[in-house]
Structures are given as C-alpha cells and as structure tokens.
Amino acid sequence: MQKSLYKKNIFLSYGFTIFMNLSFTHGLWMMYLASLGYSLVQLGLLESIFHVTSFIMEVPTGSVADIWGRKTSRLAGRLFFALSLVFIFLASSFGMLVFGFICSALGYNLESGAGEALLYDSLLLDKSEGSYLKIKGRDELLYQVCSVISFLAGGYLANVAYLYAFSLTLISNVFAFVVALFFTEPKIERDGKTTEANLIQQIFGSLRDQVVNSMKVFKEKSRIGFLIIFSESLFAIMISLFFYLQTFWADQHLLPSEIGMVYAAHAIVAAVFSLNAQALERRLNEKGLLIVCPLLIACCLWGIALTPYSRAFYIALGCVEGLLAPIISTYLNKLIPSKVRATILSFQSMAYSMFMIMIFPLIGWIGQQFSLKRSFTLMAIVSSLLVIAYIRILLKRI
Known about the structure:
single chain, about 400 residues, mainly alpha, Growth Hormone, Chain: A, 14 helices, globular
C-alpha cells in the first residue's frame, strides 16, 4: 500500500508540472508594467530584486524542504507565487511591486529543490530510482508544451485585458496547490541533529561550506570555474534578451498575441533540438557542438541587434539554446568530482543569479538612456568576447 502511494506521487507530479507551468504572464509581465508607466531602469531593478532574493534564499529554502518536508515546501511555494501575482497586478506603488517580486522569488526557491527531491525520494523508496531520467524527460516535455500554450494563450488574453492573463495564471496555480495536497511525503530517516532552533546556524554554515569547498575545486580545476562563468553569463544575457524583447517589440507596435507567437515558436524549436541533442552530438561530436553552439548564439545576437529581422533571429536562437544547455551540463559534470558535485552545481545556480543581478539593470539603464537596440548591441559585443575567450581555452584543453 505504501509503495502504491509513493508511485502515485509520480503521476501527481506530472499534473503539478502542468498547472504550475501554465503561467500566462511569463511572456508579458514587462509589457504590462511598461504600459503602467514604469521605466526600463525600474523593470531592471525588479528583476535584480528577484535574483538577489533567490541568491540569498537558496540555502534557507532548501532547509525548509529538509526540515518540514518536500510537500510543505511545494505548497508554500504555490502560496508565495499566488501572492506575487496579486501584488504585481494590483500594485499601486513601486514598493508593492518589490514585495511581489520577492514573493515570486520565494515561490521559485521553495519549489526548485523540493520538487526534484520529492520525485527522487519517492522513486528511491519504491526501489525504482533507475527510471528517474525517463520521468524527468517526460516532465521536461510537459514543461515545454505548457510554455508554448502559455505564450500563445497569454498573448491573446493580454490583447483583450491583462486581467484575464493574471487571473487564469492564478487559477492554474490554485489547481497546482490542490494537486500538491495529495502528495505523500516520503518517509526518510533524519540524523536527528537538525532542529528549528538551529536553522539559522545551519543556513550560514551551509553557505560557508559551499563557498569554501567550491573555491578549493576551482583552484584545483580552473577549467570548471571558467566554464561556469562563461555558461552562466551567456545564459543570463539570453534570459535578459527574452524579457527586454517584450518591451522592444511592443514599442514596434506588435500585439501581445504576436509576441506570444514568436516566443512559442522559440520554445518549440528549443524543445525539438534539446530532444535531439544526443543524435546531433554523435554527428558533430561533443567538441564540435561546444564550439559551434556559442558561435551561433553570438551570430543570432548580432542579427537581433543590427538587422530588422529580430524575430527570425530570436526563433533561430532557440535551436542553439536547446542544444547548449544539455551539452554544457554534460561536459561540466564530467569535470566535477562526485564528492563536490552538488556543491559546485549549487554554486553554478548562484553564479547565474549574480550575473542577472549585474546584467539585467544595466541593460535597462542603457535602453532607457539611449535605446534597446544599443543594449542589444552591447550584449552581442560582450557575448562575442566571451565566446572568443571560451573557444581559445577549449581548443587548448579538450
């Protein structure tokens, strides 16, 4: 009976993934806030606040899942996300928006580690952890399908009224919360040393150990540190592009539905190439993909910055994004010693947040002072310099 209950967690997780990722506001929140009169600098600051919160709370929220349970963490994550939607839509001041983005970051943090932990622990207790990769593959497919639906439907809803997009996202989030109520918390043995009283001490101790252990590995294998810096800075640039293109295309009088169609096409292309990454690797080999993908990203960024075909180049960018993420992840994991794998990968996530904190508001400031075209040109220049340095090092060491 217990085994069937844990097995049920897998199917519930699929439903949770669907409702959680039917986020019809993801591709248009910048357009919405810009329509209310907020500047690009303010929008950049809001995204930075999200990542500052995420950076600070990554370890604490992980402790929540370990101490009070994965199910509790996932439920709390949906509550914080619901609060963020309400505060962002109803905000009458910049301060309310700040609170909304803090809630959004907490919702993300509470879900990020707890979701995978609940899934894997359930399989482990059922002695079927070997099927984890297959289940995660299905989960990723559901995520991509929901992204496409969200971009298309969100754009059309926003054409009528942004209220509909926010309301439908909130309703979908409520369904995710209801699904999470039926999760069975995996019963795992604790060492008995962790208590609520020493939570703060545990958090700071974990942060200290994480940084110290990471620095030791980076000193011994400098290639790991460089690869993390390169990949996460490049991903931060591409995510920043995703958000600022909303405002750029809106200024060019594209309707939200038209922008949603571009994002949906980008997501479809990325999903197709991601699923075929292994087949392409067999043809071009790992070294070929590690060189070609960054070069193509730089070319697409220049196309967006300097030509009138920004939509076509952004859709093309999806091909490379779908390939680069799994290829970089595979190569990086080959380099990382098993005993510090979790530490380094966690540091990688923190590095991404640090780059977003630095890059996102800078792009907004340049866009406001000059133009978003100039911001995109700067992004293309920085990416090109990173790619040149990356390829030189890669050719020497791979």
